[in-house]
Write a structure and sequence with these properties.
Blueprint: H1 35-38, H2 49-56, H3 60-66, E1 72-79, H4 81-87, H5 93-102, H6 109-116, E2 119-125, H7 130-143, H8 147-151, H9 153-156, H10 192-202, H11 220-234, H12 239-253, H13 255-267, H14 277-281, H15 283-286, H16 288-300
């Protein structure tokens, strides 16, 4: 840790396992998807809503680093994971299409192909497809059979409660209620070594909408990060590779919060591209409580984006 970097106090590596209540009637994708709407007509990441905030604070370059125009590609292919979920009923294409259209973000031909035929293209996230990416990976995260779901923090709260979380009871794009799909199908079986990699990432990566790690995927973002870890590990990615991917995907899923984090590290003399991904996505910075302390530190320095469109679960 660089000299002068704030030491965020009071954060032990323990799980904040308060149950996330499922809010029905609020819309399946009501929060957490600002990246698509951030890009204006000319398609420049630097002119996004987050970018306008950043520009006012002299941070346009940070936005370009967080949300590059060409997006960010990770070394992992979709393969046939999505069509298998469709075949198994976890994803109902018509429901997915209707939900996306209802939010003003209709599925593209490329996205429909990923769902119906699979793809050998590497995963790429950008400001236009962040909604699709989190939703598709969410389905994989809750439905793929894995010990993290069956024996981890969520299961410890009671297997009978598995359908009572935002990520499970809130999944309404399948043929059956979301709780019925938790760890139900071996879509991506993992070797012991691959499982160990997923465990390492899942227990040490967070999202700023709540205080739980990916190993407790009680919200859509947590489930999506777990799905991303499954997919990458099954294709030989290392833990470092997956931490980097989570850092990148979180940037698009939480652009406001991650801009604040990037600004904080910039104040410490570290560029966003150089900040260790494990550090960024860890409890000290990417949990909701850790982020609030970072935000307070940046505000104390008189240089912080105004709250605006911060993403939540």
């Amino acid at each position: 840790m660089k000299p002068g970097r704030m030491r965020l106090k009071g954060w032990l590596a323990v799980y904040a396992v308060a149950v996330s209540l499922v809010v029905f009637g609020g819309g399946l994708f009501a929060a957490g998807f600002f990246s698509r709407g951030l890009v204006d007509e000319d398609g420049s990441a630097g002119s996004t809503a987050a970018g306008n905030t950043a520009a006012s604070a002299g941070g346009g370059e940070l936005v370009a680093a967080l949300l590059p125009d060409d997006g960010i590609t990770v070394q992992a292919r979709w393969g046939d994971a999505m069509p298998r979920l469709v075949e198994l009923g976890v994803i109902d294409i018509d429901k997915f299409k209707a939900a996306a259209a209802g939010k003003g973000q209709p599925l593209t031909e490329e996205e429909l192909t990923i769902l119906t035929e699979g793809s050998d293209e590497n995963l790429r996230i950008d400001a236009d497809n962040a909604y699709f990416m989190v939703t598709a990976l969410w389905a994989l995260g809750i439905a793929n059979k894995n010990p993290i779901l069956e024996e981890g923090p969520m299961a410890e709260r009671g297997w009978e409660n598995r359908g009572n979380y935002a990520a499970t009871g809130g999944w309404r794009l399948g043929k059956q209620p979301g709780g019925e799909y938790v760890s139900a199908f071996e879509v991506l079986p993992l070797t012991p070594d691959q499982q160990a990699i997923v465990e390492e990432v899942a227990h040490n990566s967070y999202r700023p909408c709540c205080g739980n790690p990916t190993a407790f995927p009680d919200c859509n973002h947590g489930a999506a990060a777990l799905g991303l870890a499954y997919l990458m590990a099954s294709q030989g990615a290392s833990a470092d590779d997956i931490f980097e991917a989570v850092k990148a995907f979180n940037s698009f899923w939480f652009p406001q919060q991650y801009h604040t984090l990037a600004r904080y590290f910039d104040q410490q003399g570290e560029s966003w591209s150089e900040v260790d991904a494990r550090t960024v996505v860890g409890i000290e910075y990417s949990s909701s409580g850790g982020f609030r302390q970072v935000q307070a530190a940046v505000q104390a320095g008189g240089d912080v984006p105004q709250p605006g469109a911060a993403s939540g679960c």
